[in-house]
Amino acid sequence: MISKLPRWVWTGAWGLAFVGGFVNVVGLLGFEHQTVTHLTGTTSMLAAALASLDLGAALHFAVLIGAFVAGTVVSGFLIRDSTLQLGRRYGVALLLESALLCLAVPLLKRNHVSGLYCAACACGLQNAMVSTYSGAVIRTTHISGMFTDLGIFLGHTLRGLPVDSRRLRLCLLVISGFLVGGIGGAVAFRRLSDSALFIPAALAAITAFTYGIYHLRNRRAAQHLSGIGQAERG
Q1: Residue 87 pLDDT more than 60?
Q2: What residues pair up with 137 in beta bridges, in sequence order?
Q3: Where are the beta strands (DSSP E) in the chain?
Q4: What is the phi/psi pair of residue 43, to 5°?
Q5: Which residues make Cβ contacts (< 8 Å) with residue 174, sequence separation at least 6?
Q6: What are phi and psi of 133, to 5 degrees?
Q7: CB-side neighbour CA atoms (13 Å) of 196
Q8: 16: which residues sit within 8 A by CB, 6+ positions away?
Q9: How far does CA 212 lie from the centroid of its chain?
Q10: Per-residue model confidence as pLDDT tens digits over 156-165
Q11: Which of 195, 212, 207, 170 is nearest to 22 (CA)?
Q12: Which residue in 52, 116, 198, 208 has the most C-beta neighbors within 10 A?
């Protein structure tokens, strides 16, 4: 349940939503004006391209979708389980995301669509990594579900039904992170152009190292307590 989520998960959810909003706006403002963090619009564009027999555009949108899905496959391979557990390879996934975003920059500077594919793959990897924690669905690269939940909560409130306040806080947390990230992406793009993606890449890498240090400290603390317990029993 959401009440069992540790504080570092809440902080990470906001930070990764920030990254998702940032990357999406940079993609939208770039040479292809293409969003990369969610597939609803991309699938609609694919449908429109197929309907008009624009095979070149259809191929582009299909590859973009495939790149996002490839990122989710990599995440599933690395982490193996959607249940939150300290010690899983979230740091490895975040470092890979950072590398993909860094790789996207020189490609986008050359107006090469493969840069978008790298960014989409990075976002797919991130979204899959945090999709489900202890029964709480968290999406950090798109927020349609979060707005849907807000509407449901409002409807429940109007009917006098109880509302899960922690779930409500989680929705607002992710929405605010995505919004602030989008603002940051727009400001950075005006100054740095496609190099703005180095910012979310750096944030992903910093998060990876922070997670690694946190995990290491907790493991050492657990080993220390285990040693004390064995000594007392001895």
Answers
A1: no
A2: 132
A3: 132-133, 136-137
A4: -65, -35
A5: 13, 14, 17, 138, 139, 140, 143, 146
A6: -125, 110
A7: 25
A8: 126, 130, 140, 177, 207
A9: 18
A10: 999 999 988 8
A11: 195
A12: 116
CA distance 194 to 22: 12
Nearby residues of 172 by Cβ (< 8 Å), 6 or more positions away: 150
Among residues 156, 146, 200, 136, which one has the least CA distance to residue 176? 146
Give the separation between CA 55 and CA 49, rounded to whole angstroms: 7
- The token duo for 195 is 């190099």
Tokens linked to 95: 């470092």
Q: Which amino acid is at 56?
A: G
Cβ contact 173:10 at 8 Å = yes
**CB burial readout 79-106, b (16+ within 10 A) else e:** beebebeeebbbbbbbbbbbebbbbbbe
Rounded to an integer, what distance in angstroms lies between the CA atom of residue 27 and that of residue 122? 13
**What phi, psi does 137 have (nearest 5°)?**
-75, 120
- 176-200 residue pLDDT tens: 999 999 999 999 999 999 999 999 9
Distances (CA, A) of 173 to 27, 71, 76, 138, 140: 23, 24, 25, 11, 10
Both tokens of 194, joined, read 């496609």
* All domains of the chain in start order, with CATH: 9-233 (1.20.1250)
Cα 5 → chain centroid: 17
Are 70 and 174 a contacting pair, CB within 8 Å? no
